[in-house]
């Protein structure tokens, strides 16, 4: 998993509440188990018209936001079904950070498993960041995981909280399996001890 340390990029504003996983990646794209190639389907029902052409009104189709690395969204982002394809699609598009006032639990957990940083802020902070995002490519946002801060284009800074173990896993680029393997020596030691004490097991 790619490490997450500091991310500077354009933030796309999605000022809607309850953006669910079916909006992020519609069900017809769930047949694959590959983590790549889903970026083109991200928000497809909003990004494309019925004839397959791009909807010019959707934010990610606007020139300023085509390379957005951050999404600033309304409350309860990632609600709905528990599909892990949702963070896969975001990551394949290039999004490494989503900022909202709240996230659905399963989506929130899946983000960390895939190298995406979900940041929870207050409604007042979200309003400031949404204003920054609406300025387009002339206003980049910097997310610094080590210092747990978000810096806006005008120099203002917002602090965010994050679970220390999840923070460390992102900083080191560790998914659940890699984090477990870091404890391989301790696990092996425990297994040898148990085998010596209870060889019949």
Write structural notes for this entry:
There is one protein chain. The protein is an alpha/beta fold and 201 residues long. The chain is built from eight helices and seven strands; from the N terminus they run E-H-H-E-H-E-H-E-H-E-E-E-H-H-H. Helix 4 links the parallel strand 3 (97-100) and strand 4 (117-120). The longest helix has 14 residues, at 184-197. It is globular and about 70 Å long. The two termini are 36 Å apart. The mean pLDDT is 92.
Number of strands: 7
Q: What's the shape?
A: globular
Quote the distance from N terminus to C terminus.
36 Å
Residues in helix, %: 25-40%
User: Would you identify the CATH architecture?
Assistant: Alpha-Beta Barrel
Return the average pLDDT rounded to an integer. 92
Low-confidence segments, given as residue ranges, are none
CATH superfamily: Aconitase, domain 4
Number of domains: 1
Q: Using the coordinates shown, work out and report the CATH topology.
A: Aconitase, domain 4
Structure annotation, total helices: 8
CATH class: Alpha Beta
Strand order of the largest sheet: 4-3-2-1-5-6-7
In what range is the share of β-strand residues?
A: 15-25%
- The helix-strand sequence is EHHEHEHEHEEEHHH
The major sheet is characterized as: 7 strands, mixed
Rg of Cα set: 19 Å
Class from secondary-structure proportions: alpha/beta
């Amino acid at each position: 998993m790619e490490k997450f340390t500091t991310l500077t990029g354009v933030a796309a504003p999605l000022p809607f509440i309850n953006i669910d996983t079916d909006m992020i990646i519609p069900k017809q794209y769930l047949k694959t188990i590959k983590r790549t190639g889903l970026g083109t389907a991200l928000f497809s029902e909003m990004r494309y018209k019925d004839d397959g052409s791009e909807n010019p009104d959707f934010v990610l189709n606007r020139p300023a936001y085509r390379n957005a690395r951050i999404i600033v969204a309304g409350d309860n982002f990632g609600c709905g079904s528990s599909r892990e394809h949702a963070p896969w699609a975001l990551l394949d598009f290039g999004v490494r950070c989503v900022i909202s006032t709240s996230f659905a639990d399963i989506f929130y957990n899946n983000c960390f498993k895939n190298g995406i940083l979900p940041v929870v802020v207050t409604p007042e902070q979200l309003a400031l960041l949404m204003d920054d995002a609406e300025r387009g490519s002339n206003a980049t946002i910097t997310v610094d995981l080590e210092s747990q801060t978000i810096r806006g284009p005008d120099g203002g800074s917002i602090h965010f909280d994050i679970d220390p173990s999840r923070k460390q896993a992102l900083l080191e680029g560790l998914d659940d399996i890699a984090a477990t393997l870091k404890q391989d020596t301790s696990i092996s030691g425990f297994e040898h001890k148990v085998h010596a004490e209870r060889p019949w097991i």
